[in-house]
Fold:
Amino acid sequence: MAQAIFKSWFVDFEPSRPFTEVVQVLSGGTPKTGTETFWNGVIPFFTPKDASGIFTLTTEKTLTKVGLSNCNSRLYPVNTVFLTARGTVGKLALAGRPMAMNQSCYALVGTEGLGQHYVYHLAQHVVESLKHKATGAVFDAIVTRDFESEIVPDITTAEARSFEEKVAPIYEIILNNSNENIRLAELRDSLLPRLMSGELSVADLGR
Structure:
């Protein structure tokens, strides 16, 4: 639904500004992998492997606070748009919670009042353009100069705000449902072994 709104509002706009004028393209980094005190903390660490679905809520790797302070990535807030630039190229995800990011990705943040949901859809449009240009060539990486060559619509702050007001509730529902799915999965994984072992019975759950 949000994609349909984006296309109906903005796809027919005359492209007139470089993508990098309206969106900051930020980088990440990885702390030393051999330093144990940097890893297995509570801070999610986004890599291309974690780009599945609209929101990323959990990651394969996590950092400690010390690891984050020794990493070339900032702690990106909820709704930061992550774009995979190497490995699996061109996948997009919204941060479902604050997280750091490795150097194989870019973090995209809107400027001039552009909301992150608009940035997410604009980035989809840009990725499709880059893939189209790469037809017949190997699309194995995205570099910053690729973004500089992409020309996108020049929309007003009011138009950006209006779009955000339309689509933000949709994404809020998706995020809430995704968090609830994780909570239910954790509850299942906690209860199932106890049910299988006989420690709990189905009757106990109803009390």
User: Anything to note?
Assistant: The longest helix spans residues 157-197. DSSP finds seven helices and ten strands in the chain. Helices lie at 2-10, 19-22, 65-69, 116-133, 144-148, 157-197, 202-205.
